[in-house]
Every structure is written in structure tokens, then in C-alpha cells.
Design goal:
It is a single chain. By secondary structure, the protein is an alpha/beta fold. The chain has two domains: 1-143 and 240-295, Periplasmic binding protein-like II (D-Maltodextrin-Binding Protein, domain 2, 3-Layer(aba) Sandwich), CATH 3.40.190.10; 145-236, D-Maltodextrin-Binding Protein, domain 2. It has ten helices and 14 strands. The protein has a five-stranded mixed beta sheet, with helices on both faces. Strands 4-1-5 form a three-stranded parallel beta sheet. Strands 2-3 form a two-stranded antiparallel ribbon. Strand 2 and strand 3 form a beta hairpin. The radius of gyration is 19 Å and the shape is elongated. Mean pLDDT is 89; it is low at 4-33.
Amino acid sequence: MTRSQPRRSTLRRPLPALAVLAVAGLAFTGCASPAPASTVAADCTPADEGLTTFTAGTLTVGVPENPPYTQTDGSGGASGIEIDIIEKLAAAECLALSYVPITYANGIPMITEQKKTDIITGGWYVTEKRAEQVGFTTPTMYDTMGVVSKDGIDTVDQLETVGTVGTGTGFSWNEELAPLLGSKLQQYPGTVEMKQDLVAGRIQAALDGYAVAVAAYADTDYKVEPIQADPRVSITQSKPLIAFPVSKDNTALSDAFSALIDQYRTDGTLADLLAAYNLPADLLVPADAAATSIR
């Protein structure tokens, strides 16, 4: 994502079917030591031979707390729409899974510097700046600004008159909205704090990543609407692409996973996952757009 730290919600998904063991914890320095992972059936035939990973035969996956994309369960497992995709990729390539808790501050260094994870999850936006550090798989879905309000606000014009508007620190749209909303734009460190103020009436609307907002406000009567196009705010006209960051040096793994993701795009798997998480079908990145994405 262009925002460095997406936020949390409460949406839960069933634990992965593939047996998983992971680290007991992650130090603030970002160091982690994955526990021995589950085994794969001896007769499993991978879709692609010769793939290499940080730990032979095991895909070590970085997992931040950012439902509905990903979240850990405190006992070595993980869930979320991206975890569902990771499970399918690992199964297709006969790789065991090991989950490592990460943050949005240490996620990329866990690949590039510490070399502790093969791939990271959590709804990462594909950007040119990030592509200087890591590679990306083919994208899976779009994100956009989600507007949370009682009345279903979905335009920048409405945001200008609704009252105080909350937004997460670090979002790309903040710089463009600041001159439009002035002192009425209030920044928050995360979804939880922003939701508390919205429910308490201290702000009248909240801005978040659309998928995150859908998950975070599923237990409320608040409406979450995708923002309508407005030339003053660039994200409303060009949706960010979401993909899995991987090591720039492991192009074989990235290419193999990308081919499988493209298959899931074609056979309806990705569309079915979006529906399962109550996300609109138009968040699916079509094949032509995926083909030109930064890798």
C-alpha cells in the first residue's frame, strides 16, 4: 500500500487447512525464528520443479494484522483473503507453510535485509518506490478509499461539508485532502482509534482502505462506500494495485506464483474469494491490467 501501516478490524476466517507452525513471537527489531514447519506428502508433485525458499521445502510468510487481508491467531496460524491465496499457492508447489508476524515497518526488511521471509502479505500496494527494494507477484485485487459514515457519503464534495473527517496517518490521499478540508481533516494512527471517535460522534466520517473498512465496520450500522471519482484526489481516479512482495532475487518463485494467480484470476477463484469476504467483484484486477503491473 502507499500507506505504510494499514489498520485492523475484526473479521475472522477459518484457520488454514494446511497444518502450520510458526514463531511464538516477533521482537520489535523484526527478528524472528520460524519453528519447524509442517510436512508435505511425499508423493506431492509441484506445479514447478526446483523452486527455492529461505527454508528448503517451506514457504515462510510474513503476516501483519490487517483484516480482511491477513491476521494471526496467536498460536501459529493465520487467516484472511490473502492467506487463502497463499494456502493455494503453497499446496500447488508442495511447500509447507510457516507464518511469521510482521509489521508494516519491518515487512520489507524481513525480505531484503534479514532474509527471514520468502513472501509477505497484508494488502501491499504496488509502487515504483517499493519495486526498487522488492519484486512483486502479479496483482490480485485493487484497493480504493472507503468512506465510512451514517448516511453513505461517497463524494469529496460531501466530505467538505459533513464536519470533521478522520483519516489514517500515511495515506496518499491526505496531502490532497488537506487543502480541501483544512482543520476538519483529523489523522489517526489506526482504524481502531478512528472507529472509536466515529462511533462516539467526535468525527462525522472516516476514510480508510475500502476492504479494511468493510471488515472493520461489519458489526455496525455505518455505511462503507467507495469514493467516487474526483480530479482533485488521484486515488479516486486510479485504484492502487495489491500484490505479494517477494525477493527481487527469487524471480523463479515470483513467476511461478504469478502464473498460478493468473490461473485463479481466469478460473474464478479470486472472484469467489472476494465474494466470500463481502468485497465487490470490481476489485478484481483484470488480466490486461495485471499484465502491465510492476513486477
